[in-house]
Amino acid sequence: QVQLVESGGGLVQAGGSLRLSCAASGRTFSRYAMGWFRQAPGKEREFVSTISGNGLSTDYADSVKGRFAISRDNAKNTVYLQMSSLKPEDTAVYYCAAGVYGRANRDYDDWGQGTQVTVSS
């Protein structure tokens, strides 16, 4: 089991940027793919991005492609989500998750508590 703690959320104006971080416990961080998901009020949790254990493979939802960038530092047991050109529709609670490389919620076994991102127009 992996414990995950997200940070970096907040309030930002449309067009602005934020960087989310997710710190993981344990010594086997590099074995896990790491994903970012988000859930807006009244909506289901949706895939945002994922990165393989070695960092060589990444995937993005179409809605964030070209604006968000995922990265990881296995020496620091941390995964990042750099978000740029933010839009009001990016407003959601963002979750990081550890599991296998994929876009489905079921691909991930361990989840963080979430961090709120609010984009004002």
Describe this structure as you would to a colleague.
Strands 2, 4, 5, 6, 9, 10 and 11 form a 7-stranded mixed sheet that branches. A 4-stranded antiparallel sheet has the order 1-3-8-7, with no helix packed on it. It is built from no helices and 11 strands. The mean pLDDT is 97. It is globular. It is mostly beta strands and 121 residues long. Strand 5 and strand 6 form a beta hairpin.
Low-confidence stretches: none
Strand content: over 45%
Q: Give the helix level as a range of percent.
A: under 10%
User: Radius of gyration, rounded?
Assistant: 13 Å
General form: globular
Structural class: mainly beta
Number of helices, counting only DSSP H or I runs of 4 residues or more = 0
Order of helix and strand elements from N to C terminus? EEEEEEEEEEE
Number of strands: 11
Q: pLDDT average, as an integer?
A: 97
Write the layout of secondary structure elements.
Blueprint: E1 4-7, E2 10-13, E3 18-24, E4 33-39, E5 46-51, E6 58-60, E7 68-73, E8 78-83, E9 92-99, E10 108-111, E11 115-120
Parallel strand pairs: 2-11
Antiparallel strand pairs: 1-3, 3-8, 4-5, 4-9, 5-6, 7-8, 9-10, 9-11
Give keywords.
121 residues, 11 strands
Question: Can you summarize this structure?
Answer:
The chain has 121 residues and is mainly β.
